[in-house]
Amino acid sequence: MRRFLAVALIYAGCATTPHKPNAREWNLLMADYQWIQTLRAAQKTPGPNASRKEQIGARVENLTRLQPTYVAFMDKLRDYHDRTGDGRAATILGKEKIALGDEYMNVLSRYDKAIELYRQALEVDSGNVEAQQRIAVAEQRRFVSMNSFALIKTGMREEDVRKLVGFPREDWIKQVMQNSRVYSVWIYPKSDGGASAIYFDNGVVYHTNWNAAAPPASQTK
Q1: pLDDT for 19
Q2: What angle do CA 211, 162, 43 make, to 5 degrees?
Q3: Coil, helix or strand for 216?
Q4: How many CB atoms lie within 10 A of CB 119?
Q5: Residues of each domain in the chain carrying CATH 3.30.1450.10
Q6: pLDDT band at 11 (very low <50, low <70, confident <90, very high)
């Protein structure tokens, strides 16, 4: 009798958590994924003239609202993939890692974190060409180049600078108000560990410094 119960329990466990791709679980997961896509489509998006601060704030708010539903879905999808090895799940896991990496790269300018997420996409979906391409782009943007920096000229506006060297990280932009004017500095890391800086007066470049910060002493030896 005990042996019969043990076999029955094992069979029941296999029936509820199959170790091969199956239509029932996959269809339920896709229904959840479609709901997430619907929620995403309904989210507010900042207008074309929104400031970077407003863009970041809107994305953080959207991610916060979606997080409980999204995390629950990703946990189920990851569990399904780990149990079944279903390549369709790997594709979506990789796609979502890339989407999050894009936020870090294109909005926050946190290239190290973006590269980490793109590599995670490759870990689960090794043939993902988009992840490979994104890593190359992020590596290129990670440090400001002398050639690009040399193109920054006095009198350029912030948008002109962004097109040439991109935005720095949001916490590497410093601002101060003085006599009704806004003075700001954008700081960019260099590959040698130092940093360059671009200075703005009411959004217009008035000074640049390629060697604004020296590399750590350990890197100059």
Answers
A1: 87
A2: 135
A3: coil
A4: 15
A5: 146-220
A6: very low
Cβ contact 191:166 at 8 Å? no
Rg (the chain; Cα; Å): 24
pTM of the model: 0.80
Spatial CA neighbour of 43 closest among 67, 75, 74: 67
Q: How far from the centroid of its chain's Cα atoms is residue 141's Cα?
A: 14
pLDDT band at residue 14, thresholds of 50, 70 and 90?
very low
* Distance separating alpha carbons of residues 79 and 196, to the nearest angstrom: 45
CATH for the 146-220 domain, from 3.40.50.300, 3.90.1210.10, 3.30.1450.10, 3.40.50.10540: 3.30.1450.10
Is 207 a residue whose pLDDT tops 90?
yes
Burial 156-175 (b: 16+ CB within 10 A, else e): bebeebeeebbbbbeeebee
